[in-house]
Design brief:
The complex is a heterodimer of chains A (about 450) and B (about 425). By secondary structure, chain A is an alpha/beta fold. Chain A has 24 helices and eight strands. In chain A, about 50% of the residues are buried. Helices cover about 25% and strands about 20% of the residues of chain B. Chain B contains eleven helices and 19 strands. In chain B, the strands form six sheets. In chain B, strands 1, 2, 13, 14, 15, 16 and 19 form a seven-stranded mixed beta sheet that branches. A four-stranded parallel beta sheet of chain B has the order 8-7-11-12. A two-stranded antiparallel sheet of chain B has the order 3-6. The longest helix of chain B has 20 residues. The two termini of chain B are about 20 Å apart. The chains are: A alpha/beta (about 450), B alpha/beta (about 425). Chains A and B meet through helix 2, helix 16, helix 17 and helix 18 of A and helix 6, strand 13 and strand 16 of B.
């Protein structure tokens, strides 16, 4: 019977009718965890998230995001003996389910917390899987050492017998080539170039050229991430030159890994340690009027969404609200569209590109940005290769037992790359780039490189 | 600065997509922002115009003949029957894989509940299954998919008096898919014609499926499956099964999440892409600036408010389910622009006590002038440059009338067209 039919009862919800013996029951005992109950309650089981899951499309052992998120969350609250299902380790953390949910359920936050709990409470820290995941998740550490001896590292990391041993003992697939380490890291280049002082000079000159006030408040803090620092340094350099061209002073503050590979492997303690450094250095700058800019869409995703969803660190909300992806920021603050319309590209990058939008660009609303921006650029053609996932999802596709599935997920993208006119790929995400290169043999560029070619003298 | 366009459409459902397409084809620079992916994933993929009158009479044979006699406040009356026709032409042009445009009469499409739905347009994949066709029919369900019980659906259709014999059989889907496999898993397997193990042998999925169904076929001329027959390659999957089975094959539209809805979403987004529309999904529009005109709206991203400005705006955020209209104990409201939503003061007057009663709330939404501009409480336009389309509009009960898609397409088309004309 609905409440409308019984207006005559004595029940008056305004006055307490519980009596003095009432003892409130604490349904969810004290805890420092984020309360995800409103999120779980918002799920009305439409299963749209499941249709977005690239893993559930190919993996018959994976129950999909609806189970991993709201359903498992409820089970955990009501049953003390409930342990996190080990299938949570098969989620690749692409976070596409977030963008699918019409009800705003924080699915990836639920996955990340469940995975963290599984790894810290149920996983054997002496197991090969744990050790392997920890090494993969801490790519920054490996890259740091490799960058000290880049030539040796480039040889050793792709040395057949060594890779065979890595696969057999650690479960790191020998099918893939390790990315090449730059001879000079981005930060070494940055320091050699004169750091912030040089950038300030360059920005000042550009402002003069553009007729902007000398003291215009244009300053950004660059979160280059690990990959632009150790591997694709040309992306970081393009970012700096492009921003300076628009009159921005760039700083490159102290930073560690964004945490993306750590979230995906449930290594939340590692991720927090790195996040504390990043938030501390970025929040100082944000307070002084800088905005944080990332060139990798997974890094910007981590700072914007995963940090405030998973950690409670001083200043974290301000950093999240002031972090942007590099091209997005220029679209908001400059008339980028008009500048691109008037520009032309010739030389090396006058190409047809097969563009893939990374999954992590989706929640940020950036998946169509490159295609839409470059359709007005003379001299190039950028073709979208479809909305499928590349399949590598950071460390997922590096795991020996996941490699085949990773390639099955990527098959659609490879096919569309093959069909596209161009033979050069383009994406914002370093690991998507690895997968694109692995499946097609194409060289892969970043939109910032193309913008630099179009707009920087 | 802000991200700029001539026309900004807020909302990514059928109304928003049609609005953006019509504005772009009118020559405007159009941008569409949607909180999340399109809700078409939850739609059956059928496009109805009008199945029943507001009084519940029907199923109607000719929806267009009935439109002029609808109540004044009905959105179809606002735009007029000719606009409904033009809007459907735009849809037919943008989604050529749909059928039904050869006639004004409603088609009768069997649903996964065993009912027959009057609808104006339907995907080609549903074409061989129409209930007006008198060929005998075999329905094949999949054991693991509990929302399509073929014998039950067949019995329901039979009881509904369809002019043919219909029988239901249930098979195990070839390959050992998990019991709660997603519709996309079936579709992917058939799209790629991936190999599945059948009694120890590897067989391509399409062959394996046909082999399971063949022995069940008697004299039927057509076979219906739940709508899982492929995603990108659905036409090829259906053609392959028809060849292997020697009969026509059709899909029965299913509840959410729905592959026909997903395919329709893809087709419309492709049309928008071709028309040069900019699209952004993932974050909500939460606020705006402006008095008599909307100057700009703000898209919220994790605490950052990204300004988007345009000359003209289309509000296509949906009704109660899509959260374009909200209610609490105090009242009913439109959350972005706070447009006036006419409703009874006493909330006990919002609904009837019978579950399927004639609920007033089902018709709640913004009221508009003839130009689809939302009206305030004193019946003046809330803003000069804001038009509304789709289920954010009041004055009709799409669930009872079976008019949801048609109203979205017609008002989206009209709002987008007017917005583009004004933006010049």
């Amino acid at each position: 019977m609905s409440d409308a039919e019984s207006p005559d009862t004595d029940f008056d919800p305004v006055a307490s009718n519980t009596g003095e013996d009432f003892e409130p029951v604490d349904v969810f005992p004290d805890s420092d965890d984020f309360d995800l109950r409103p999120g779980a309650d918002s799920c009305y089981k439409c299963a749209t998230c499941d249709t977005n899951c690239p893993v559930a499309e190919v993996d018959d052992d994976f129950p999909g995001p609806k189970f991993q998120g709201p359903e498992q969350w409820r089970l955990k609250q009501t049953d003390d003996d409930h342990t996190v299902d080990d299938s949570v380790m098969d989620c690749s953390n692409c976070m596409r389910c977030d963008n699918a949910c019409p009800s705003g359920v924080p699915l990836s936050q639920m996955h990340n917390t469940a995975r963290g709990e599984y790894v810290s409470e149920q996983m054997d820290t002496l197991s090969v899987e744990y050790v392997r995941n920890r090494i993969l998740a801490n790519y920054r550490t490996s890259a740091f050492f490799a960058s000290k001896v880049p030539r040796l590292a480039n040889f050793a990391m792709n040395f057949g017998p060594a890779r065979w041993v890595m696969e057999k003992t650690l479960g790191v697939t020998s099918e893939r080539d390790f990315p090449e380490f730059a001879r000079q890291t981005f930060r070494e280049w940055w320091a050699e170039r004169g750091g912030q002082a040089t950038s300030r000079e360059n920005a000042k000159e550009a402002r003069e050229r553009r007729g902007l006030p000398e003291d215009a408040d244009k300053k950004v803090a660059y979160f280059h991430g690990c990959y632009s620092n150790y591997n694709t340094t040309e992306v970081g350099k393009a970012m700096v030159r492009l921003y300076e061209e628009f009159g921005y002073e760039v700083v490159a503050p102290e930073q560690k890994c964004s945490g993306t590979p750590m979230f995906a492997n449930g290594m939340l303690d590692d991720a927090r340690r790195h996040a504390e450094v990043n938030v501390s250095s970025m929040s100082d700058l944000v307070e002084r009027g800088y905005d944080a800019i990332a060139s990798c869409t997974s890094c910007s995703m981590a700072l914007r969404q995963e940090y405030p969803e998973l950690f409670d660190i001083d200043g974290i909300e301000d950093v999240a609200a002031n972090t942007f992806e590099a091209v997005e920021y220029l679209r908001i603050h400059e008339d980028l569209r008009e500048e691109v319309r008037e520009a032309e590209v010739d030389g090396d990058l006058a190409e047809e590109f097969a563009y893939h939008a990374p999954c992590h660009s989706r929640n940020q609303g950036l998946d169509r940005q490159a295609v839409e921006l470059f359709r007005d650029l003379d001299g190039v053609d950028v073709e979208d290769v479809g909305d499928s996932c590349s399949g590598i999802s950071g460390t997922y596709g590096w795991k020996e037992e996941k490699y085949e599935k990773s390639m099955q997920i990527g098959a659609e993208m490879f096919e569309h790359m093959e069909d596209a006119d161009g033979e050069t790929g383009m994406t914002e995400c370093p690991t998507c780039a690895m997968q694109m290169e692995h499946g097609s043999g194409y060289e892969i560029r970043h939109p910032l490189e193309l913008l630099e070619a179009a707009l920087v003298e | 600065m802000a991200i700029e366009s001539d026309v900004l459409v807020v909302g990514g459902g059928l109304a928003g997509l049609t609005g953006a397409l019509s504005a772009a084809r009118e020559g405007a620079d159009v941008r569409l922002v949607s909180y999340k992916q399109s809700t078409l994933r939850q739609a059956s993929g059928l496009v109805d115009v009008l199945g029943y009158t507001p009084e519940g009479d029907g199923p109607l044979t000719d929806p267009f003949a009935t439109i002029p006699s609808l109540p004044d406040r009905h959105p179809y009356r606002t735009v007029g029957v000719e606009t409904v026709r033009e809007a459907l032409s735009l849809f037919d042009d943008a989604v050529p894989t749909y059928e039904g445009d050869h006639t004004d009469a409603n088609a009768l499409v069997p649903t996964h509940g065993g009912t027959v739905k009057p609808t104006a347009r339907y995907p080609a994949g549903a074409s061989a299954g129409l209930a007006s066709d008198d060929r005998d029919t075999l329905l094949v369900g999949v054991e693991e998919m509990v929302d399509f019980d073929a014998p039950h659906v067949a019995a329901h259709l039979d009881a509904a008096g369809v002019p043919f014999d219909v029988r239901g059989e249930t098979i195990r889907f070839p390959g050992d898919l998990r019991a709660d496999a997603k519709v996309t898993r079936y579709a992917k397997l058939l799209d790629t014609d991936g190999e599945v193990a059948v009694r120890g042998r590897k067989v391509p999925a399409r062959d394996a499926l046909a082999q399971r169904v063949n022995p069940l076929l008697e004299s039927e001329a057509r076979v219906g499956f739940p709508a899982i027959l492929g995603d990108d390659e659905h036409a090829a999957v259906r053609a392959a099964l028809e060849e292997k089975l020697g009969v026509d094959v059709f899909e029965v539209p299913m509840g959410p999440p729905s592959l026909p809805g997903l395919r329709l979403e893809d087709a419309l987004f492709d049309a928008l892409d071709d028309a040069g529309v900019s699209i952004e999904t993932g974050n909500p529009v939460v606020d705006f600036d402006g008095e008599d005109r909307v100057e700009r709206v703000f898209v919220e991203k994790n605490g950052a408010r990204i300004p988007n400005s345009a000359d003209q705006y289309v509000l296509a955020t949906g009704g109660f389910v899509g959260k374009g209209i909200e209610s609490d104990r105090e009242g009913v409201s439109e959350p972005i622009f706070d447009c006036h939503v006419p409703h009874a003061e006493d909330r006990y007057d919002w609904f009837e006590t019978e579950l399927f009663g004639d609920h007033a709330f089902a018709r709640y939404g913004v009221a508009t002038d003839d130009d689809l501009r939302p009206l305030d409480a004193s019946e003046r336009p809330e803003f000069d440059n804001l038009r509304a389309a789709g289920s954010v509009l009041g004055g009709y009960d799409f669930a009872a009338e079976k008019s949801g898609s048609g109203v979205s397409i017609a008002t989206g088309y009209a709002a987008g067209q007017r917005a583009a004309q004004e933006a010049r």
